[in-house]
Specification:
The protein is an alpha+beta fold. It is built from twelve helices and nine strands. A hairpin with a 2-residue loop joins β2 (about 35-40) and β3 (about 45-50).
Length: about 325
Amino acid sequence: MVNWNSDILSILRRAGLLELGPPPPMEPLTGGVSSDIWHVRIGHNEYCVKRALSKLKVKADWRAPVERSHYEAGWMDVVSRVLPNAVPPLVHVDETGSAIVMHYLDPARFPLWKAQLADGEIDCAFAAAVGRAIGVIHRETAGKASVAARFRSDEIFHSIRLEPYLLAPAARHRSVTRQLKALARRTAQTQKALVHGDVSPKNILKGPHGPVFLDAECAWYGDPAFDLAFCLNHLLLKGVWKRQWLEACLDAFNALYGAYLPLVTFEHPDDLEARAASLLAGLLLGRIDGKSPVEYITEPSDKNRVRGIALALLVDPPERLARYPEIWLQEMTS
């Protein structure tokens, strides 16, 4: 029996990809909480259709403007001019349905980085490639007034990033409320380059020509330190989840930021690193006690370890990212 979705069919017809008639083969894809995502086959072509949801698929009451698909398409357009192989080919932007249509990338050629990390395939060279790609995108968009004007998405970034990851845990942990609110305020006020907003292994494919970034619906002209900290956060958490590969995850952590920082030419790299290092503590707490906790850390003891480290570092934030692997190795092996 063929799955189909009437909204997705309407989007495909508005895109001029589908005439009236029986639905084509299509199946829902998993992996995200903010969108309906479908894999569709039309003739010899395969597409990915992504439609933004107003209420995200999490336990908490988490809502966000559906106009974010417009900014996702914009991010893909800008990045395709800087790093053509770093985004899927965009086919159609559907403002009516708050959706985008992309060419589908075969997992056999474009495996998901998260799946590789989960299987212990921890490639430091690829982690460095991710760091370089993020760095190039930030460098090439920094200080560009035209890009800043195109991504006035402060409201969306607040509702889908700052509120769920920093302000929600601030309401729960009174001892660090001031610090978390300060991080959110500083991030909101720092506007230097085009930010993806969800640079996570679940949104990165390992393509034949380097990393391919998905799910840029948080795109915003803001603080590039957010992208760096957000991705490094996941490498730390993967080391908790897969303790047998802890040291390899920390090596990947070092490789990623080590490749990124030399590309920071639009401000002093020490300043950006300090912002990323302090923000990372808040994001760690956000993935345990925010509105979208990571699904793979389930043991209370593991949650408590991450929570304890994050709370301590929020009170006494490090200025350098190198401090994290030292702390992580000590705390997770004791």
